Amino acid sequence: MAGRREERLTDRKYVVFDVLDHIASLEMRARDLVEGTMAGLQRSPYLGASSEFAQHRAYVAGDDTRHIDWKVYGRTERYYVRQFQEETNFVVTFILDCSESMRYGSGKTSKLDHACLMTASLSYLALRQADAVSVALFDENLIGFLPPRTSLGSLGLVASSLETIKPERGTKLETVVPVLVEMIGRRGIVVVISDLLDVGSPDGEDDTAGILRAIQLLRHQRHEVVVMHVLDPQELSFDFGGRIRFEGMESLPAAVAEPNKIRADYVDIIQRFLAQTKMACAGTRSDYVLVNTAEPVDHLLVRYLTARGKIREGRR
Q1: What residue ranges do the domains of the chain occupy?
Q2: Rounded to 5 degrees, what are φ and ψ at 55?
Q3: pTM for the full predicted model
Q4: What is the CATH superfamily name and number for domain 91-314?
Q5: Which pLDDT tens digit goes with each residue over 97-116?
Q6: How far apart are CA 260 and CA 242, in angstroms?
Q7: For 18-44, how does the pLDDT look when each residue is reduced to its tens digit (9 = 90+)?
Q8: Which of 199, 212, 225 is nearest to 139 (CA)?
């Protein structure tokens, strides 16, 4: 990404070129987010009739060199491949949690910052491979929707939409997904990025019941689903000391506690929550990724996408 594109994106908070350069080295497409079951999906309707030339895109390792446009190389000294309608890919929809609990961060960045950086980075990877990208922002309701776009220049729109987020309310994934499935339309890849701390669930109901119903609805619509469960390291370890006043979020009251006395119980509860969530995803054949915000985004994405690629190769 150079020249005018860089000039437009350098002031974007969630476009970090070091991260993009790292993940761009991956020799895989955005469909490697899932287990390789997308190969039979209907191709994108965005770019015209089948077998007709659609667009150029930057060459990446693994592309068929027969598709390199040498005339373009002669003019630019950069490798581009000619892409046709039949080679266009999928719509990748990011459903991003913008609730108040996402503001939390024990380090330099919040869960929301981490989630936004992941969204922008994965959007770049998808757009770079000519997949269409759509972004949905939600808390208790759907608060923003960016329709599918395929041009790499759309990354600026994605980044600017992420910068408008004001996390103030609760989380209700289950009420948002029915609205979204009507907007998303045809089958594609849906990436849910959230801490999944939905305090709007009915009393006495399993913590993951609403999450499971939301995922089931997406799967019923034949979308491939990836759940990226974003948590701060302190939310996982509860490694606080002394007597602390914990501020409530998403309508919960503040509470004073001595972490040393309740840490074991807390860790047991959070581990059960993680296990239940992972099991809910496995039960719907959805991908589950625990995102610890202590891990740099590019390291996480490279590790995850590489693992997905190996699984896919092993199933061929």
Answers
A1: 47-87, 91-314
A2: -170, 170
A3: 0.77
A4: von Willebrand factor, type A domain (3.40.50.410)
A5: 999 999 999 988 999 999 99
A6: 8
A7: 777 777 766 444 445 544 433 333 344
A8: 199
d(CA 53, CA 197) in angstroms, rounded, equals 46
Instruction: Go through the chain and tell me how many residues it has.
Output: 316
Query: Going by DSSP bridges, is the β-strand pair 244-246/224-231 parallel, antiparallel, or unpaired?
Result: unpaired
- Smallest CA-to-CA distance from 98 within 110, 106, 90, 87 is with 110
- Dihedral of CA 43/46/47/50: which sign? positive
255/124 Cα distance (integer angstroms) = 41
Half-sphere exposure of 136 (CA within 13 A, CB side): 25
Token pair for 160: 């600017």
DSSP secondary structure, 46-114, as one string: TT-STTSEEEEEE--TTS-GGGB-HHHHHHHSS-EEEEEGGG---EEEEEEE-SGGGG--SSSS-HHHH
